[in-house]
């Protein structure tokens, strides 16, 4: 009987994870567009000033770390659910 309860709890856990995975996949997709905009703005600003904008560099680094966390979660490389369910990553 205890084995049956554990198996049922495991199945419920995978469905909850599935819901989080769908949510994280949607966030990943939206952030792809944000990354494209940041890259384009960075390119245009670098054309004008011959140097990248340091704030955009920092934001891009953090965004890249966040996208990596989402990819790790989606591929089961990590069990930690990314932001907003944990801290925003620092890109260091």
Shape: elongated
SS strand fraction: under 5%
**Spans of 5+ residues with little confidence (pLDDT < 50)?**
none
Task: Give the assembly state of these chains.
Answer: single chain
Helix fraction by DSSP (H/I, runs of at least 4):
over 70%
Rounded average pLDDT: 88
Any idea what the radius of gyration is? Answer: 18 Å
Number of helices: 2
Head-to-tail CA distance between termini:
49 Å
How does this structure look, described?
There is one protein chain. The chain has 92 residues and is mainly α. It has one domain (2-74). The protein is 75% helix and 0% strand. Helix 1 runs antiparallel to helix 2. The chain is elongated, with a radius of gyration of 18 Å. The protein starts with a helix and ends in an 18-residue tail after the last helix. The model has no long low-confidence stretch (mean pLDDT 88).
